[in-house]
Amino acid sequence: MPNVHVVKKDFKTFPLESGDFLYKYLFVCNYDKMVYVEGRGEKFFLKIVEKEKEILIKADKITKPTNIKIVHDAMKGFVEVNGFKVLNSNIYSTKNRLYKKSPYQKDIYFYQDFKPDKRVEIEIGFGSGRHILYKAKKNPDTIYIGIEIHKPSIEQLLKQCEIQNIQNIYVVDYDARILLQTLSSNFVDTIYVHFPVPWDKKPHRRVLSKSFLDEAVRVLKVGGKLELRTDSENYFQYACELFVSLKKCEITIKKNSDIDVVSKYEDRWKRMEKNIYDIIFVNGEFSKPKVSRELPKFDKKVNFSDIYDKFENKTVRKEDYFVHFENICKAKDDVGVLKLSFGSYDKSEHRYLMFERNSIEYIPSKILPTEQNVLADKIVKEFIYG
Ligand SMILES: C[S@@+](CC[C@H](N)C(=O)[O-])C[C@H]1O[C@@H](n2cnc3c(N)ncnc32)[C@H](O)[C@@H]1O
User: Are residue 48 and residue 161 in the same domain, yes or no?
Assistant: First the structure.
């Protein structure tokens, strides 16, 4: 994680500006402070930890943009505009990557009604990107959607798409289990899940689950396939049981079969002579259209001071979703942020809710209208509006 240690001194008065960045507010939270930054089309926070003689400036995990170069540049700008003396840092030594907004990374809302007249394949957890790059080059008329949560892997694939001038890959920085719930029905030809993390000790974090399979079946065309490849016998057994629990199921199982492209993981497992299992599921059902859900806008005025006064750290638990009101931070009487986690228990989401005079918005992005998110958002609005 990028961080800079500087000699402690007072901040200059906000708002501050440096290069492409506007450092709009300094938020005071319980234990630390946060700087709200806007620039290069992004909205994010820098975390400030004040020690006796120094200040640590680091990236905020929830709002950190995919392109880490933006965070590095924003941190450098913040150090410069305040005239801080740097003690040590890991941002000045990194390779000077070029910042450029990538045309291959679409906004997550782009996919809500996405149903092109072309073949579509999805790869979940593409890692080094070897497989998706190979497939996309081999099948230029198919659209490949790569979904990942590991930002360095995402950056690497975006870079490769650009270097190799690939036109048919779309990259998404999001939890695939959540994104899948918001895609249209019956339009995907193949979903690849290659070497998912087995999470033997935390099975709720697995990509594959009953609800994931239901969504996969819904988005797959009739005849569309879900291809799972794993080196974990445990995960293989778990997956077999899940597939067989579907109302209708046609699966093919293979052991140690070769595919056209060998990923970094597969290379490693092969060298260790581990067994590799494939389960290929063929969808036979035409599904109902996606249930269309909307999140109501924040359209009533509120006084942030009232929210600040009534805030308490609490979790509202319902049967299959929750909202955790984690923290509240204030910049001015009418500007503040509420830190939230919410959604379904096995795949929660994290956001800040930013109150800026009369406007309220989720940072860094709106939330996706899944069933659990819509219900969680209702609880958030009940708390805000009373
Ligand atoms: C073990 S790696 C395998 C990478 C690649 N498929 C391969 O075969 O080399 C698993 C990948 O899945 C990603 N991942 C884990 N959970 C995910 C989720 N919920 N949504 C999207 N990607 C996820 C991880 O970040 C990681 O890159």
Answer: no
Q: Which two tokens stand for residue 64?
A: 């950190």
Q: Which residue from 124, 270, 274 has its CB within 8 A of the most atoms of ligand 1, so it is best to mutate? A: 124
Cα(133) to centroid(ligand 1), Å: 15
* pLDDT category of residue 100 using cuts at 50, 70 and 90: low
In a domain, 308, yes or no: yes
Q: How far apart are CA 63 and CA 56, in angstroms?
A: 18
Residue 103 pLDDT: 85
Give the percent of the chain with pLDDT over 90: 84
- Closest ligand 1 atom, CA of 150? 25
Separation of CA 196 and ligand 1 centre (Å)? 5
Domain that holds residue 79: 3-89
The structure's pTM equals: 0.93
**Domain boundary residue among 89, 122, 137?**
89
Sheet containing strand 142-148, edge to edge, reads 169-173, 142-148, 119-124, 188-194, 220-230, 277-282, 250-255
> Measured from the CA of 153, which atom of ligand 1 is nearest?
27
C-alpha 147 – ligand 1 centre gap (Å): 9
Does residue 335 form part of some domain? yes
Residue 291 is assigned to a structural domain of this protein? no
Measured by CA distance, the residue closest to atom 12 of ligand 1 is 125
Instruction: Name all residues whose Cβ lies below 6 A of ligand 1.
Output: 124-128, 147-150, 153, 175-177, 194-197, 207, 263-265
> Given a cut of 80, is residue 99 above it in pLDDT?
no
The answer to whether residues 112 and 85 belong to one domain is no
125 and 65 co-located in one domain: no
What's phi and psi for 190, nearest 5 deg? Answer: -145, 140
Q: Do residues 326 and 371 share a domain?
A: yes
* Same domain membership, residue 353 and residue 268: no
